[in-house]
Amino acid sequence: MILTIPKKCLNFYRKKSPSWRFFGKINIMIKVENLTKKFGDFTAVDNVSFFVNKGEIFAFLGPNGAGKTTTIRMLTTLLKPTSGQVLINGSDPVREKNDVRRSFGIVFQDPSLDDELTAQENMEFHGVLYNVPKDIRRKRIEELLKFVELWDRKSDLVKNFSGGMKRRLEVARGLVHHPKILFLDEPTLGLDPQTRSHIWSYIKNLNKEEGMTVFFTTHYIEEADKVTQKIAIIDHGKIIVQGTPEELKQQTKTTSLEEAFLTFTGKNIREEEVNPAERMRIRRRIFRH
Questions:
Q1: Least enclosed by CB within 10 Å: which of 15, 86, 203, 263?
Q2: Domain of 252, in residue numbers
Q3: pTM of the model
Q4: Sheet bearing 238-243, strands edge to edge
């Protein structure tokens, strides 16, 4: 969907990103304006605004408890915003959930597979939910399971898989229906460097060949430096800076994205901003919405 960028939003991005060029209209896949989420007196996401163009690989970075996962849950219809506006491929996640859900694939930070099903059954179930035709679905499942090197384990119950195998299966499952947008919340957490590199090579190829937009969070900062075109850093629920990896390094006079990240967010060790009891209450609220 072609959207015109508001003048206020345009000026913000011109200021934040010196390399930004405006040509009148841009194909925007993710548009977020003044997005806020509160849980009682706790503000998890505080008035954030950004957009992601079609075919862009966008990294959403921040320390523990910064608001990354809460933001992704709002973008993917799992959590209703307190205020603000979101458009995913031109549709509102609150009022047009089905349209939004058809647009994206997602790999959650927390495990989401059915342990009592086999690898192939998990993939089949996902394909059926997204109405992927049977012949296309079977071919796609075989292709993806071979890619993540699980084809020979396709008939094994997922409960017998290692953590790394489950992660690889979740990445494969999120791609079954050829999504226009792929949301990845810590997609390679716990994977060895070889597997991380293999998965990112495949995702980058899909991005190039199919124009798939990628929105991801990661703790592997060097990963973001290598694959992303644009980055937003969020801390304490607020976006503090946006730009390309090179722009952030130039702005902080550093030589690596990790150094730039620490310059913006500080070097102190972070704990979650709420205590365990409050985290449990927040999680219950999330799943009730």
A1: 15
A2: 2-113+173-288
A3: 0.80
A4: 104-107, 181-185, 213-217, 57-61, 230-235, 238-243
